[in-house]
């Protein structure tokens, strides 16, 4: 009778690792035939976690009771975030049940629910030893994803994505996509790799071996972003480096802190200046963005036209503009989860057309279709409305504030802060969070960070902080 109880944590951990580690490898679990098996793993691991909560606590390998990791003082901050996010999930469920296309609404709701379940299990349901194992596995997995993307690009020019043919549009431009079909999404997962690598390098408690491993992960991640030629990825790298300068040196002595910040800022400025003066294909994607995509109307060829007008005429600008026009018709509660792709043809054309006068809009809607907005934040606003956006930002903001206000930064915690910045920034102009594999990985990283900050908060209440020593991943 006691044997199943002993095995429950191991089975739960294995089921949890499957979507977190394999999801990014299998095309980001974008297609339904990959999405549902991984979702089932998340639901089953959550079920086992719930069963464990109902069973009597048993001593673990180190002789401690597992329930001790969930004492109120440790769980308080996580419980607040979970409660606030639970309110958003309840709202999202109601809006999903009201949507006109049930299948797309269901997928949209699950994209919010399953990462929450992953993060909650990492935060409350894993022994600290298993959290360390998960951290190492994720870092190694991200390194392998980047290495595969680089090797595949060298060998095949990214014409193949695993065993499938890649998109000619992307490999024709010489862009690496790794195990994703879109180079921008490959860049997104590499940004998480960069966040974890920088955390290992910058954390004061990291040993030399972990710093070297973090440096290698940073190199692989940076090369992956460059080969993807993602404009959003390049800008996100700058945002992550800036965040690392702000929070990465916070716990260093004052003199070293400002010296390293000045060195990093100078190096980043020199590297950016060199990049801007090169004629590489990556740089040309920045300089030629507005010229190559703003040719849908003759008036836009006029050099006097404003930068804002040119931005609106790009494919991404047109998708975001259409989404905002749709949101204005339902500003409070949105047009419904998963409804963007269905209502896009109605809102895609710019609003300067006139049917009575026979005047076509300057930006029509007949040349391409938008399945996603290419901005996670705008799509959240469009489909869930201002109410949904506010309800989502409350737990997200609470979590971020709790992380950055920690009294002591570990590699896990700093990795969570930098990952938060990476996805929050890149989501302004792309839809990485619509890729389940990326979202599950992010949720696990944030769960590890939250678990670390709550444990340290409890420890600091009991005793004075111990002097910093050379330790492994977390103390």
Walk me through this protein's architecture:
The chain is an all-alpha fold and 475 residues long. The protein has a domain at 3-70 and 101-251 and 408-456. It has helices at residues 3-22, 32-54, 72-98, 102-124, 128-156, 168-171, 183-202, 208-228, 231-247, 254-276, 281-287, 289-293, 307-313, 315-329, 340-347, 376-404, 411-426, 436-462; strands spanning 160-161, 164-165. It has a two-stranded antiparallel ribbon. A hairpin with a 2-residue loop joins strand 1 (160-161) and strand 2 (164-165). Helix 5 packs across helix 7 and helix 7 packs parallel to helix 9 (231-247). The longest helix has 29 residues, at 128-156. The chain is globular and about 70 Å long. It starts with a helix and ends in a 13-residue tail after the last helix. Residues 1-5, 65-74, 292-300 and 455-475 have low confidence and may be disordered.
Fraction of residues in helices? 55-70%
Proportion of strand residues: under 5%
Instruction: Give the strand order of the largest sheet, numbering strands 1, 2, ... along the chain.
Output: 1-2
Q: How can the largest sheet be summarized?
A: 2 strands, antiparallel
Low-confidence stretches: 1-5, 65-74, 292-300, 455-475
Terminus-to-terminus distance: 36 Å
* Multimeric state: single chain
Helix/strand order = HHHHHEEHHHHHHHHHHHHH
What is the tally of helical segments? 18
C-alpha-based Rg, rounded: 23 Å
Mean of pLDDT? 83
Summing up helix and strand content along with how strands pair, one would put the structural category as: mainly alpha
Total number of strands: 2
**Anisotropy-based shape:** globular
């Amino acid at each position: 009778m006691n044997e199943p109880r002993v095995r429950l944590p191991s089975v739960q951990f294995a089921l949890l690792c499957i979507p977190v580690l394999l999801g990014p490898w299998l095309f980001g679990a974008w297609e339904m035939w990959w999405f549902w098996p991984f979702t089932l793993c998340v639901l089953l691991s959550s079920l086992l976690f719930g069963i464990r909560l109902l069973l009597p606590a048993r001593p673990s390998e180190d002789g401690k009771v597992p329930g001790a990791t969930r004492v109120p003082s440790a769980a308080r901050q996580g419980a607040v975030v979970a409660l606030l996010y639970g309110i958003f999930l309840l709202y999202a469920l109601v809006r999903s049940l009201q949507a006109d296309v049930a299948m797309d609404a269901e997928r949209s709701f699950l994209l919010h629910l399953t990462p929450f379940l992953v993060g909650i299990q990492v935060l409350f349901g894993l022994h600290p030893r298993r959290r360390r194992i998960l951290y190492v596995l994720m870092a190694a997995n991200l390194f392998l994803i980047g290495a595969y993307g680089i090797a595949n690009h060298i060998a095949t020019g990214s014409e193949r994505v695993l065993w499938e043919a890649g998109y000619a549009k992307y490999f024709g431009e010489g862009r690496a996509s790794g195990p994703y079909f879109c180079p921008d999404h490959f860049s997104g997962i590499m940004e998480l790799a960069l966040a974890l690598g920088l955390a290992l390098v910058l954390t004061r408690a990291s040993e030399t071996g972990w710093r070297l491993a973090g440096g290698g992960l940073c190199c692989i991640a940076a090369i992956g972003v460059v080969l993807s030629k993602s404009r959003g990825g390049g800008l996100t790298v700058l945002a992550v480096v800036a965040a690392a300068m702000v929070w990465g040196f916070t716990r260093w002595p004052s003199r070293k802190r400002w010296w390293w910040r000045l060195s990093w800022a100078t190096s980043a400025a020199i590297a950016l200046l060199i990049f801007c003066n090169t004629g590489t294909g990556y740089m040309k994607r920045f300089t030629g963005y507005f010229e190559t995509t703003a040719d849908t109307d003759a008036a836009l060829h006029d050099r006097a036209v404003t930068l804002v007008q040119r931005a609106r005429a790009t494919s991404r600008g047109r998708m975001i503009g259409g989404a905002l026009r749709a949101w204005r018709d339902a500003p409070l509660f949105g047009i419904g989860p998963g409804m963007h792709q269905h209502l896009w043809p109605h809102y895609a054309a710019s609003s300067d057309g006139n049917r009575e006068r026979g005047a076509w809009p300057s930006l029509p809607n007949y040349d391409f279709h938008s399945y996603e907005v290419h901005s996670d934040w705008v799509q959240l606003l469009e489909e869930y409305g201002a109410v949904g956006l506010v309800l989502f930002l409350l737990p997200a903001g609470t979590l971020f504030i709790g992380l950055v206000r920690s009294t002591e930064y570990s590699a896990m915690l700093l990795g969570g802060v930098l990952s938060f910045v990476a996805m929050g920034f890149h989501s302004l102009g792309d839809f990485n969070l619509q890729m389940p594999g990326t979202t599950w990985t992010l949720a696990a990283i944030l769960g590890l960070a939250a678990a670390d900050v709550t444990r340290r908060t409890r420890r600091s209440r009991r005793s004075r902080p111990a002097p910093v020593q050379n330790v492994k991943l977390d103390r």
